[in-house]
């Protein structure tokens, strides 16, 4: 008996949108400073996609969200250093540098003019609305004549 990897013949829009590829996880989920990338959740309802990035300890100004054609990039760069005041002497100082960048190709169904984001309680929340024509329409009864 041979074990065969299952391949979905009909990939969903969600699969194409977020490209859940685990083969490159080690390469793709670590930054250049050997720190892991922030975890994220992706949700969808009939009106929008929602991306939540867990990034505690950051400030709103630490993030950059850029849309270039259909590529949405979320990045951050944060440098921390302990400054000394006059008369102080450093006996030990640890610098901190955190950066990450994650990119997603958006499907054609999104309304890129209305993407919004907010940062609250350590979570960067991005709302990506769908175009009106992409939203499911309510069913209707058709009269038979």
Any overview of this molecule?
- Strand 3 (about 65-70) and strand 4 form a beta hairpin.
- The chain is built from 2 helices and 7 strands; from the N terminus they run H-H-E-E-E-E-E-E-E.
- The model is unreliable at about 20-35 (pLDDT under 50).
- By secondary structure, it is mostly beta strands.
Q: List the helices and strands in order.
A: HHEEEEEEE
Broad shape: rod-shaped
Mean pLDDT: 77
The biggest sheet, with number of strands, parallel, antiparallel or mixed sense and barrel status, is:
4 strands, antiparallel
Helix content: under 10%
Please indicate the percent range of residues in DSSP E strands (runs of 2 or more): 25-35%
Distance between the termini: 58 Å
Structural category: mainly beta
Count of DSSP helices? Answer: 2
Q: What strand line-up does the widest sheet have?
A: 1-2-7-6
Domain SHSP: 31-145
Protein name: Heat-shock protein
InterPro entries: A-crystallin/Hsp20_dom, HSP20-like_chaperone, Small_HSP
Family: Belongs to the small heat shock protein (HSP20) family.
List the helices and strands and how they pair.
Elements: H1 13-18, H2 25-28, E1 40-44, E2 48-54, E3 63-68, E4 71-80, E5 96-105, E6 116-120, E7 123-129
